[in-house]
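User: Second chain of the day. Same drill as before.
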Amino acid sequence: MDNLHDLFLTTQGRIARRQFWLGVVVLGVAAVIMAFIFAALFGVPMFNAVGTGPVSQGNMAFDNEAILGSLRTAGWVSLVITLIFAFPTAALMIKRRHDRNRSGREVWLYIGIGLLIQLYLVQALGFSLQMTPDGGLYLPMPSIINVVVGLAGLCLGLYLLVVCGFLSGSAGENSYGPDPHKGR
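Assistant: Same format as last time:
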């Protein structure tokens, strides 16, 4: 597992925690850079609200359609980035699960839940628009289904974080290959 191809593009073999964390950092930095590039290309406002009109008595008039359009565009950008990084992320996690002599099938469930959440965001499925108390801005509010799916993804993600990132692998060779610590 000494080259990037084996680290990010195959699910065969085992990797140690150090390789896992280095891979997570590489993917995280690449995802942030790609998010900035895509946001600039597609005109997604990243740090400011989409407001129009004069500010009166401390209130800003909001263009709700522009906000919803920005959210939809941001959702598509996020979905594309998620799709690009889904397999490399799965490859890292599955190899860590292999190091603990497990198949890693739950990683695919985690990736699937993440993609489902992204699709919900893009299509605004299960969201309703509720006006803020001051009556000027509509905010998308998730339905109970979105909350449950999101919590399931969060719980599975935390479990995978602990078992992939913090627990030791099985010592010696296992059914997925030789010990990644051998030879050091």
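Residues 8 and 88 are 4 Å apart (CA to CA).

User: Great, on to the next one.
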